[in-house]
Amino acid sequence: LPKAVSEGTSLRIPLIQTPIIMDIRSRPREIKSVTGTKDLQMVNIYLRVLSRPREDKLAHIYQTLGTNFDDRVLPSLGNEVLKSVVAQYNADQLLSMREQISRQIRETLTKRAATFDLVLDDVSITHLVFGKEFTNAIEQKQVAQQEAERQTYIVLKAEQEKKASIIRAEGEAEAAGLISRALEASGSGLIEVRRIDAARDVADTLSKSRSLTYLPSGQAGNNNMLLGLNTP
User: Fold this and answer.
1) CA pair distance 80, 200, nearest whole angstrom
2) What are the backbone dihedrals phi and psi of residue 51, each rounded to the nearest 5 degrees, phi first?
3) Which residue has the higher pLDDT, 227 or 126?
4) 113: number of Cβ within 10 Å
5) Structure confidence at residue 119 (pLDDT)
6) What is the DSSP letter of 219?
7) pLDDT category, 1, cuts 50, 70, 90?
8) 31-60 CB burial, b ≥16 within 10 A, e <16
9) What is the DSSP letter of 8?
10) Under 8 Å CB-to-CB from 198, ≥6 apart: which residues?
11) What is the pLDDT of residues 212-222, one digit of tens each?
């Protein structure tokens, strides 16, 4: 009788009925297809499919397809769907829109498999392998983008340095203006204060150095001596 019976103990009529055991668990299958994109680039696509038969249609599946139903249906359906979907996109879109393309392939393949009473639990793209020419083009494009970003950084850096130089020059000009106004207001007193500060700094530095010795002349009008002593 064309009726599916679940697992367990069942009765059959000897010499009239013959049990046909069919696996209804989800089975993985990898479908490989070489197809062309919208911009005429060749790509190898690997598709992983988990499929199982409908339990209430096992008798019809056996009568029409036999026990190796997935071998007869899925490879041809997978190649057909992959070619039809991939042809709608450019090669670079297969990378940037991979999730959307995978979802479209899954929906289309699920509908086609349903006409053969097959249920697809999962459909996903596992590998995308492009031709050598396209791979080289992608590498060159990435190099060009990195070079463009580097040049943009150099230009921005030069602009920032230019702005910094302008600000520094404006600050120096303002400082020079303040000094000029101070000189006009106090005469040479500011210069004498700066000279004393500089002399104090020099004296402090010399006092901490072991290789220098200061010898006063002891006579008015004579220059003092500063000797450099080399220490071992």
Assistant:
1) 92
2) -130, 155
3) 126
4) 21
5) 93
6) S
7) very low
8) bebebebeeebebebebebebebeeeebee
9) S
10) none
11) 555 555 555 55
Contact 54, 119 (CB under 8 A): yes
Q: Is 115 helix (H, G, I), strand (E, B) or coil?
A: coil
223 has pLDDT over 50: yes
pTM for this predicted structure: 0.55
As to burial, measured by CB atoms within 10 angstroms (0-12 exposed, 13-18 middle, 19+ buried), residue 221 is exposed
In 3D, which of 121, 138, 120, 119 has the Cα closest to residue 129?
A: 138
Q: How far is CA 226 from CA 76, 150, 200, 217, in A?
A: 101, 55, 16, 10
**Residue 36 or 16, more confident:** 36
At a CB cut-off of 8 Å and minimum separation 6, what does 53 contact?
22, 24, 61, 69, 117, 118, 119
Residue 187 CB coordination number (10 Å): 10
Q: Answer for the pair 54, 118: CB distance below 8 angstroms, yes or no.
A: yes
